[in-house]
Design a protein that fits this description.
Helix content is 36%, strand content 16%. It is built from nine helices and seven strands.
Amino acid sequence: MTPSEQPPDQPSGGREPIGWSVLVREALRDALALILPVECAGCQRPDRTLCDECARSLVSHTSIHSTPQHLRVYAALRYEGRVRRVLLAFKNHHRTDLARPLSVALLSALRRALSESTAPGGASGPIEIIAVPSSKTAMRTRGYHPVGLVLKTAGVRHARALRVAQKTRSQKMLSAEERAVNVKGAFISVRSLAGSLVIIVDDVLTTGATLDEAARAISAAGGTVIAAATMGFTPRTLAVRDIASGEGYGMEKGAK
């Protein structure tokens, strides 16, 4: 991502400047709202896809976490409040217009994962980005793969190397132990990953069970998982595995 090269507006009369670009953008937003009514995904404010305050809540502050199998996870945002409502709107209510701001947050976490992660034993080679797959049912319901869409919007190429191998229950009401059992054997690689270094990407980290299962499937295909990156993490007070990792609070996610 590169910062805008447009020069800043010049101050006038000692007041905060308002550039023509801002005025035009606001006018276009107001005109579009008359044709296609929309509300802010984070706070339901009318006539805005994402209001300024909710947009600020999506500015990444990447934190580091660990799954039960000690996979290092870089998470862009805390999955609560406005962030949670935005992600749910994107995943479950067809708000694909939110892919752009979410891609900026995810890209921040992914860049840090790429810059800080190393392979065991000092192995080197090309790094593949592999997204946790959605089930066929979820794809039919949504019509898109949320993580894949965000990666595409961010301009990040990712390998479709995993597929769902068996149905699982919803993770929402399960304990950490139940989640791990529920997703065991859920994924399989569609090709050999021998010699590949991999960073897994998913949407939200809650317990780490889904990421650990994805890592297992990748390892079974010969790949080496060096890290994971997610758009968000669920804060969990005094989660020992997070304190041990040196940063952050919480873990992984529900059903895909």
